[in-house]
């Protein structure tokens, strides 16, 4: 037990003490151990830069939305769902993690008397019971105003990646909205356009003039706008000598990496990676700006 505590103390020095306790580490819970190691890897990957010949494989891998899946996995685990999510599409199939997430985001939303739970043995529930759970999750989303046209519980059970990502994104977006509501002077949900206006105001406040039309604007790819937002929040924090023109892929990546590094140093909870900025993944960029808003409340 003493050695297990030492392991976790070392992890704490790396800001990675999560998921495990000394007793659970000694007990050898495989899912918790995997979640712990995955968190270590995500925080300190220690990987060499991707080589040109490897890029086609990476692009093919991400074509099925795996990068968004990684972000949503991290977000769900930040809610302390049990067990931790390791493989998003597989782990959501029985609906239990989704329903836990609903309850974490909107306390009281789920009537757990209507939820089919796993048996004490930990065995998987039947497809029929999984369908009842996922249909309940979809119905809850519709009741809460989510846009879930064409999504059924069977899509989640069958691991439909596009539709599963769509549902989880709307749940994450609601979580962001609830957080933003506490920051809004009106106490109302903040739309994407209001979040964008806030970001633009920070740019102006910092004496910069970069601008974007929406979170899908390709001008975001060089990260200049995000760096200018950070400059408005924390004047002098962005060393513009380190900011590149963003004319090449390498320069855009360096800028995005700098923006993420500064945001984390300011205490923001950041889910995306530089490629998400360079490729202008609107959903993930919204989460970036939303995290900055919580710093500036």
Q: What is this structure, in a nutshell?
A:
By secondary structure, the protein is mostly helical. The chain has helices at 2-13, 22-27, 30-43, 55-62, 66-78, 88-91, 96-105, 127-143, 153-157, 161-183, 192-205, 224-233, 249-265, 274-278, 282-295.
Keywords:
297 residues, Actin-binding Protein, T-fimbrin, domain 1, 58% helix, mainly alpha
Under CATH, the homologous superfamily of the largest domain reads Calponin-like domain
**What fraction, in percent, of the residue positions are helical?**
55-70%
Overall geometry:
globular
What does the largest sheet look like? none
Report the radius of gyration as a whole number of Å. 20 Å
Hey, roughly how much beta strand do the residues contain?
under 5%
Word description of this protein:
- The protein has helices spanning 2-13, 22-27, 30-43, 55-62, 66-78, 88-91, 96-105, 127-143, 153-157, 161-183, 192-205, 224-233, 249-265, 274-278, 282-295.
- By secondary structure, it is mainly α.
- It folds into three domains: 1-45, Actin-binding Protein, T-fimbrin, domain 1 (Orthogonal Bundle); 65-185, Calponin-like domain (Actin-binding Protein, T-fimbrin, domain 1, Orthogonal Bundle), CATH 1.10.418; 191-295, Calponin-like domain (Actin-binding Protein, T-fimbrin, domain 1), CATH 1.10.418.
- Residues 1-45, 66-176, 189-297 form the Calponin-homology (CH) domain.
């Amino acid at each position: 037990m003493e050695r297990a505590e030492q392991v976790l103390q070392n992890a704490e020095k790396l800001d990675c003490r999560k998921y495990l306790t000394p007793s659970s580490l000694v007990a050898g819970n495989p899912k918790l151990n995997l979640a712990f190691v995955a968190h270590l890897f995500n925080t300190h990957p220690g990987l060499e830069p991707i080589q040109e010949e490897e890029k086609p494989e990476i692009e093919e891998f991400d074509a099925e939305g795996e990068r968004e899946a990684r972000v949503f996995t991290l977000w769900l685990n930040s809610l302390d769902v049990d067990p931790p999510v390791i493989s998003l599409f597989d782990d959501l199939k029985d609906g239990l993690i989704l329903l836990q997430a609903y309850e974490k985001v909107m306390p009281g939303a789920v009537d757990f008397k209507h939820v089919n739970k796993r048996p004490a043995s930990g065995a998987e529930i039947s497809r029929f019971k999984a369908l009842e759970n996922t249909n309940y999750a979809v119905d809850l989303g519709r009741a809460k105003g989510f846009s879930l046209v064409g999504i059924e519980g069977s899509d989640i059970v069958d691991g439909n990646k596009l539709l599963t990502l769509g549902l989880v994104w709307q749940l994450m977006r609601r979580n962001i909205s609830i957080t933003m509501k506490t920051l809004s002077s009106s106490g109302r949900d903040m739309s994407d356009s209001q979040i964008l206006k806030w970001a633009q105001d920070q740019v102006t406040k910092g004496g910069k003039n970069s601008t974007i039309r929406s979170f899908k604007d390709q001008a975001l790819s060089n990260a200049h706008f995000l760096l200018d937002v950070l400059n408005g929040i924390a004047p002098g924090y962005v060393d513009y000598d380190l900011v590149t023109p963003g004319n090449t892929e390498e320069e855009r990546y360096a800028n995005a990496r700098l923006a993420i590094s500064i945001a984390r140093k300011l205490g923001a909870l950041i889910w995306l990676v530089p490629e998400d900025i360079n490729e202008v993944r609107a959903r993930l960029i919204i989460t970036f700006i939303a995290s900055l808003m919580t710093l500036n409340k």
